[in-house]
Amino acid sequence: MEEIGRAALIVGRDLRTQIIFVGETAAALWNATRYPQSVRWKDVWYTCEQVGVNALPIVALISFLLGIILAFQSAVPMRQFGAEIFVADLIGLSILRELGPLMTAILLAGRSGAAFAAEIGTMKVNEELNALTTMGLDPVRFLVVTRILAALLMVPLLTLFADIIGILGGALTMLTFNIPIAAFLHEIDSLVDVKDLLAGLAKTPVFAILIAGIGCLRGLQTEQGASAVGISATRAVVSGIILLVVVDGIYAFVYYLLDV
Amino acid sequence: MSEPIIRVEDFTTGYGGKILLKDIAFTVERGEVFVILGGSGSGKSTLLKHMIGLYEPMSGKIVIDGDDIVTADGDARRAILKKIGVMYQSGALFGSMTLLENVRLPLEEYTSLDDEAMDLLARMKLKLVGLESFTGHMPSEISGGMQKRAAIARAMALDPTILFLDEPSAGLDPITSAELDQLVLRLARSLHITFVIVTHELASIYAVADRVIMLDKRTMGIIAEGDPKVLRDTSDNPWVRQFFRREATAEAA
Ligand SMILES: Nc1ncnc2c1ncn2[C@@H]1O[C@H](COP(=O)(O)OP(=O)(O)O)[C@@H](O)[C@H]1O
Ligand SMILES: [Mg+2]
């Protein structure tokens, strides 16, 4: 009984800080759009480099492999019906609508979400957050807004990049099934629509806010002690990925209802 | 006599409903070096964090240069915060910035000076603490004593009237710690900055303190107030005498 009460108390407190965090972040983002000169753009560009440019190799590797695996897995059964060419549509649709955005987001949750939590958590343990506060500088504006803006800029671009590399992976694989790249791309072009690309990219701003927001929140929630920063980073990745999958499911449901 | 620069009245606080400090009252005079003493866990850091507005007390006032930091918010709060500088126990320099960038940060946020003027002011502050040849270093590349001096330079960026130092000698060897004491005295005497320092380093207390208050967790209040050397020689409170006699045992340890 007491256990349940204590757990409820903790969940309640967690919920409270999360609501406060969302409110403060929304207010700070709103302020940033009204007074763009108040944003520390130097920090935004630096974070863009960390989140975006430095993630290119891993995003390229994973989406290329994804394209290859998808192609192989579907081409073998399709060949029995002489329908290998339709692999192109399968790959185009699934990568553009689902796998490109989701895989990129999950990679970034592991990479940048954890990094945000660790950076901000270290600053908290080291009293740097207190130092900001007593300088009259709001840690949310200073640390959270810059990271969310950087993610908003980088996640769509990385997703587009992952889409292209993934389809390229599929196209190269299909060469071994005697389908030339030109035919592959032509097939995608005939069945897959710009709408499908946009349906995938439309998820990326929400994914970006989730990844960066949760990373920063977990960082700000860091407790004292030697293992606290590691715990925050882990929590950022776990809750980040869970929320990404849930939100992706909501998108799929809404798209189905709207017949997108 | 002029109005004290800090006036704490009826101050009571604690954590999670448990009272730690009760009905505290004291004043800090303009330009003095004021030291908060007490055994570990007596609430020194807690008191300091309330004085710089990080925590809210259960009740009471903390009036800084005429304005109560407990009730001030928005621009009024920023105006108070501009008058104070804080050096945290760990230094709390921003690890991703050079020393110069650390000291420049408050200038960037509070002034509209051009780049060159801000650089000049930041360099001057670093020179005051003897770090003029380390402006391009990262905090991780300098020693603990230098980090604390850099933190003082950053705390002085906006020419505050009060500097708060939390455990300046923690983690420093006696020589470095003595150098830091000399720096504090120099800044206090030449720039007329008021210092509020939390420490339990006796050598440092005798070197810098004009006046001390001593907290004690058994009474949850102030058990002694005044000149530290006078307290050492004349106090009839056994806990106070015990604290000042600790010198010999502390040095043996
Ligand atoms: N954030 C906090 N939450 C709960 N208890 C705290 C917190 N900070 C300090 N305490 C407790 O308050 C007491 C006084 O702490 P502190 O002010 O750091 O003492 P000092 O600096 O004199 O050693 C200690 O018992 C400490 O455990
Ligand atoms: Mg302390």
List the helices and strands and how they pair.
The complex is a heterodimer of chains A (260) and B (253).
Chain A lengths: L1 H33 L6 H11 L4 H25 L6 H39 L2 H7 L4 H37 L5 H11 L2 H8 L2 H17 L7 H31 L2
Helix pairs in contact in A: 1-6, 2-6, 3-4, 3-6, 4-6, 4-7, 4-8, 4-9, 4-10, 6-9, 9-10
Chain B lengths: L5 E10 L2 E11 L4 E6 L5 H8 L7 E6 L2 E2 L6 H9 E4 L11 H12 L4 H14 L15 H12 L6 E5 L7 H18 L2 E5 L3 H7 L2 E6 L4 E6 L1 H7 L3 H15 L1
Parallel strand pairs in B: 3-8, 3-9, 6-7, 7-8
Antiparallel strand pairs in B: 1-2, 1-4, 4-5, 9-10
Helix pairs in contact in B: 3-4, 3-5, 4-5, 6-7
Bound molecules: adenosine-5'-diphosphate and magnesium ion.
Describe this structure in words.
The complex is a heterodimer of chains A (260) and B (253). Helices cover 84% and strands 0% of the residues of chain A. Chain A has 260 residues and is mainly α. Chain A is elongated, with a radius of gyration of 21 Å. Chain B is α/β, with parallel strands linked by helices. Chain B folds into two domains: 1-83 and 162-253, P-loop containing nucleotide triphosphate hydrolases (Rossmann fold, 3-Layer(aba) Sandwich), CATH 3.40.50.300; 95-159, no CATH class. The termini of chain B are far apart. Chain B has helices spanning 44-51, 75-83, 99-110, 115-128, 144-155, 174-191, 202-208, 228-234, 238-252, and strands at residues 6-15, 18-28, 33-38, 59-64, 67-68, 84-87, 162-166, 194-198, 211-216, 221-226. In chain B, 40% of the residues lie in helices and 24% in strands. Bound molecules: adenosine-5'-diphosphate (ADP) and magnesium ion (MG). Adenosine-5'-diphosphate is lined by residues 15, 20, 38, 40-46 of chain B.
